[in-house]
Each structure stands twice: as structure tokens, then as C-alpha cells.
Amino acid sequence: MDKKFSILYVDDEESNLHIFKDTFRREYIIYTAISAKEGLKILDNEKIDLILTDQRMPEMDGVEFLKNALKNYPDLNRILITAYSDFDAIRNAINEAQIFQYIQKPWTEDKLRSIIEQGLEVYRLKIENTKLTNDLKDKNEQLVKMNSELLNLDKLKNDFLSLISHEIRTPLNGLVGPFQLLKEEFKNESENILTLFNILENSVNKLEQFSISALNITALKSKKYKVHLEDVDFNQVLQSTISLLGDNIYNKKVNFIYDIKANVVIADLDLFKISLKELIENAIKFSDEAGVINIKTFIEDEWVVIQVTDKGKGLEPKYLDHLFELFISSDDIKNKGLGLNLALIKLIMDAHSGKIEIKNNDKIQGVTVKLYFKNTKQTLK
Fold it and tell me: Which domains occur in the chain, in start order?
């Protein structure tokens, strides 16, 4: 059952107080006061939802009483009951006490009931609106706090990547040169020694690649990288990328099928080289032994689209929505080396105001990745 509203009625005639209470006590909790002074005490001690008062009372009239009520309880609606001739009182009540409504004597039950219901409904809506506003304010404050925490976490991630990449790169720079000399020195040794050198070289290369990727991610996320758009020759970059990945291609024995219908891509050359290398390298990693990788380019609306399709085992659907996260938890993805690669490609596409789409193939096994570059030069965000 809904809680009853509380009404305060002030009048210096006891008979009027009794009539009012008998009329409305079934629907509402009724408080009555024989004077304005007593009415103010009730307001201070009880929870009141609506105020009614007669105008003509000794010591303090109805308008003065309602002015006091307005000052201390501004949310309550105030109703003045007055005689036909009290035009000045009505004007003052409207201007100074900001009354909700007035009713002239003699009042009828239906008329007064209607005004009371309206006053309480407006009050209810006012309270509800205040509650919603406060809730919204609280939620907004929570969102601001959460956003601040997320920004701080993102900064910590960037700082961590920057720190770890520098910490790795410094010893690597001192390691690569001597390592190459040692490899040359022992090139005629047994196959076991050469295998060990190859394992070490592969580990060094992976660390170096991680360091470079981490630095690029940090630069892009912190907006320190200045994108320079130019017409990029796709075929030229593609051939240099294939050459760069020659060992990977040879070891996996993958074959490429090309369908190049758009050769000019408007992009930052350095970032484009990185994105294409990461994209093809991922396709090689996910391909089966002696697999086939399809590379296509074409125009679609205002985009130049670069599409790379492999025929590997594909990705588990539950991971598709998390592929661009820097610290993704999927062992399958981490073991393939995608933890930073796809995050880096996504940041590169964001820097170009472009798009990246990844999905499992429908009719064949494997994954298709599409990079969307704007087909016209534009002002980047």
C-alpha cells in the first residue's frame, strides 16, 4: 500500500479545522494548527507534503505564514484559502509566497479535493525529479571517477610499455653485434651448435620486434606520432614486405595469391609499412604448413580496402571482441604473437581515421582481415 501524503491545514476557527480533517482524513494524514505560529512548529517537527492556510488570522496572517514556509521549506506546495474580497492578499500570496494555488471561500469539497490532488502530484513529481537529478549526479560523478581511473590505467600501460621497451632495447643493442660475430665465428661448427645459435637469434629478433612494437604503440596512444599522408605504392611496399618476411615464408612454405585492383593508398608510409608487415606476418603464423594466403585490394565506396585471408584454423568466436586489447589473456592468441600486433594495427588505422575488420571465414577455414583507408586525403583528428 502506498504511503499516505501528509497535509497541514492552518485556520484560527476550530470548526473549519474539524470539517477539513473529517473530509480528508481517509485519504491523507491530516495535521491542523489553530495559528500560524503553531503551524510553523508542526512544519519543524513533522514531515509535511502540502500546506493549506486561511488568510485572515490574528498575529500572523496566511500570506506571512506562507512566506515563512517558503523560506524554510521551498519544495512544499502552498495553497491559500481566502474570501472574495481579499484581492491584495491573493496578489501578495502569488508574488511573495509563490503559492501553488488559491481557493475562495466558501470552498466545495470537490473543488478543494481537485486542488489538493494537483498540488500533491506536482510535489511528487518535483521530489521524483530531484531524486533522479541527484541519482544522475551521483552516476555522473561515478563515471567521472571511473573514467579518471581508466585514463590513469591507460597511462600506466603506456608508461609500462615505454619503460619495458627501453629496458629491453638497451641491452639488445649491446647484444646483437657480438652475437653476429659469434655466429660467424662458429658457422662451421656442429649442427647442434648452429641450431642453438638459430634459437638464440630467433629469441633476440622477437625481443627486438616487441621493443619496436611497444615503442610504436606508446607513440600512437600518446598522440606523439605526427601522421604524414602521401600516395603510397601498394605493390612496392608489398614486395619489400614479402622480401622482409622471406625466412618466415620459407619456413612455413606458404604461397600467396594476389588480386590487386587498387595500387595507390593514401597513408603515412612508415605506419603503412608496419601495418602491412604485421598483417601478413599474422597470416603466416596462422596458416597451416604449405598454406595459401590471399591478398586483395579494391575500392569500396570511399575506402581503399586491403584484404588478407589465410586458411588456418581460425579464431575462437569468444576472442573476436578482444583482439585489439593490449594485454589480452587468450593463450592461443598470445602464443601466436598477436597480443601487441593487432593492437598496433588498430592504433595505426585509428591514426588514419580508418577501420579494421577481422572475422572467421564462412565457407572455408581461416581468418579474413580488412584494412580500410580513406580514398581521399583528409584532415586527421
Answer: 6-107 (3.40.50.2300), 142-221 (1.10.287), 230-374 (3.30.565.10)
CA–CA gap between residue 288 and residue 250 (Å, rounded): 13
Percent of the chain with pLDDT over 90: 44
> Rounded to whole angstroms, how far apart are CA atoms 115 and 98?
16
DSSP tally for the chain: helices H, then strands E? 11, 12
- Signed CA dihedral, 193, 195, 201, 207: sign only: negative
Global pTM? 0.52
As a three-state string, the secondary structure of 213-272 is HHHHHHHHHCCCCCCCCEEEEHHHHHHHHHHHCHHHHHHHCCEEEEEECCCEEEECHHHH
Residue 286, pLDDT score: 86
43-75 per-position pLDDT tens digit: 999 999 999 999 889 889 888 999 989 998 998
Exposure string (b/e) for 256-280, b if CB count within 10 Å is 16 or more? eeeeeebeebbbbeebbbbbbbbbb
- Residues present in the chain in total: 381
